[in-house]
Every structure is written in C-alpha cells, then in structure tokens.
Amino acid sequence: SQTIHQWPATLVQPVGSPLSLECTVEGTSNPNLYWYRQAAGRGLQLLFYSVGIGQISSEVPQNLSASRPQDRQFILSSKKLLLSDSGFYLCAWTLGLEADEQFFGPGTRLTVL
Amino acid sequence: GQNIDQPTEMTATEGAIVQINCTYQTSGFNGLFWYQQHAGEAPTFLSYNVLDGLEEKGRFSSFLSRSKGYSYLLLKELQMKDSASYLCAVKDSNYQLIWGAGTKLIIKP
C-alpha cells in the first residue's frame, strides 16, 4: 500500500531563517506530487506541483521554492522566511493528472515569529 | 477568475441530517471533490462527482449539477465524530484542484 510521509510535524522558525520541508512517498512509482499551504480558516492554496524528477511548476510567485531530486521525494524550501509564510503545509500525491483522488501527508505546522 | 463558495460554518444536531452546499465558477470542469478535514489534520477524501446526479456512500451522499455550477454534500445520522471542516474542490481544465475555504460543521448533542 502507498504511504506518504512529511517532516517535521511542527516547526517554529524566526523571520529571515531558511526552511526545508521534506515529503516522501512509498509504494508507488512516478507519482504527481503537490505542495499546498493552508492558512488558518482558509482553503488549500497550491504552491508547486511536479509530474517527474526535476520538473517543477510554480503556481504562486513567492519566496518559496521546490525541488524533486528523486522520484518519490519532494522538498519545499525558502532562503528567508516571512511572517506570512506561517501556515499548515501539506504534501499530496496522485497517479496522473486525471486521478480521482489526491492523497495527503500528515502536514507540517509552520509558525514564523 | 476561479471561485468556489461554501458556507463558513454550520451547526447541526447529533442524529439529524445536514446539507452543505458548494457553488463554483472555474475555467473548465473535470470533476468535483469533497474532503473532510478534522482540526489539525490532513484532508481525507469523501466523494467525487464528474457526472450530474447523486453519488451515495453510506451516510454520505454528494450531488452535482454542472449546468448550475452547484454541488452539495449530504450527511445523514450525524455523529459527534462528523464535527470537522468539509472542503469542496473542483478540478479545472488544467487538472488542478481549486479549493473552497471549507465549511466548519459543529455537531451538538
């Protein structure tokens, strides 16, 4: 069966510090991978998605970046965090763009102070 | 622009029935999804509609009218564990999910 992991679960970082969040998927090959951010009481905002190694599409211009160094690994990074980067970060995967369902990881709660 | 509208919050009584509405305006349509999200947790998939009509899954049903840009999620025999946010999402012409802000459902005994 497929499993998706995210870490860390919670993170408190000062403004201006760097960020690295990792997501890995087990039990499947060549998944589509997604990074979302959810602000308190809001819907999910798509940040990045990837259909393969080294292929990253950005949906929203901001100080975040993403990389996919391996087939089942997706990393979200920032060189300098802003207060507005606080939120709940979710990684998700699907098999193909036409898949019926996205499967989510447990999420990372990021607080920038 | 693309827009998904759903009520911010609803309250219902344990054992009752509740209907959560969702209206959408998107560039293209490749299906509508309902997810459940408990506080502090990731969303979990509830239902998927791509054709007009009603899809039933146990206590939960989801309805779609593409001509009206409208869907609803119907929850029957409400239980306390159904207290959660319910997110409506539409897959657009680029096969990306556009998400509503979610409806927080409060169940009272």
Strand content of the residues of chain B, in percent? over 45%
- In total, the number of strands of chain B is 11
Q: Considering DSSP H and I runs of 4 or more, what fraction of the residues of chain B is helical?
A: under 10%
Low-confidence stretches of chain A: none
Any low-confidence stretches of chain B, pLDDT <50, length ≥5?
none
Mean pLDDT of chain A: 92
Tally of helical runs of chain B: 0
Q: What Rg of chain B is obtained from the alpha carbons, in whole angstroms?
A: 13 Å
Give the radius of gyration of chain A: 13 Å
How would you characterize the largest beta sheet of chain A? 7 strands, mixed
Q: Would you list the SSEs of chain A in sequence order as H and E?
A: EEEEEEEEEEE
Task: Describe the secondary-structure layout.
The complex is a heterodimer of chains A (113) and B (109).
Chain A lengths: L2 E5 L2 E4 L5 E8 L5 E7 L5 E9 L2 E4 L5 E7 L2 E6 L8 E8 L8 E2 L3 E5 L1
Parallel strand pairs in A: 2-11
Antiparallel strand pairs in A: 1-3, 3-8, 4-5, 4-9, 5-6, 7-8, 9-10, 9-11
Chain B lengths: L2 E3 L3 E5 L4 E8 L6 E6 L6 E6 L3 E5 L2 E6 L4 E6 L8 E8 L5 E3 L3 E6 L1
Parallel strand pairs in B: 2-11
Antiparallel strand pairs in B: 1-3, 3-8, 4-5, 4-9, 6-7, 7-8, 9-10, 9-11
Characterize the structure shown.
- The complex is a heterodimer of chains A (113) and B (109).
- Helices cover 0% and strands 58% of the residues of chain A.
- In chain A, a hairpin with an 8-residue loop joins β9 (87-94) and β10 (103-104).
- Chain A contains no helices and 11 strands.
- The radius of gyration of chain A is 13 Å and the shape is globular.
- The termini of chain A are far apart.
- In chain A, the strands form 2 sheets. In chain A, strands 2, 4, 5, 6, 9, 10 and 11 form a 7-stranded mixed β-sheet that branches. In chain A, strands 1-3-8-7 form a 4-stranded antiparallel β-sheet, with no helix packed on it.
- The model of chain A has no long low-confidence stretch (mean pLDDT 92).
- In chain B, 0% of the residues lie in helices and 57% in strands.
- Chain B has strands at residues 3-5, 9-13, 18-25, 32-37, 44-49, 53-57, 60-65, 70-75, 84-91, 97-99, 103-108.
- Chain B starts with a strand and ends with a strand.
- The interface between A and B is medium-sized, with 20 and 20 residues.
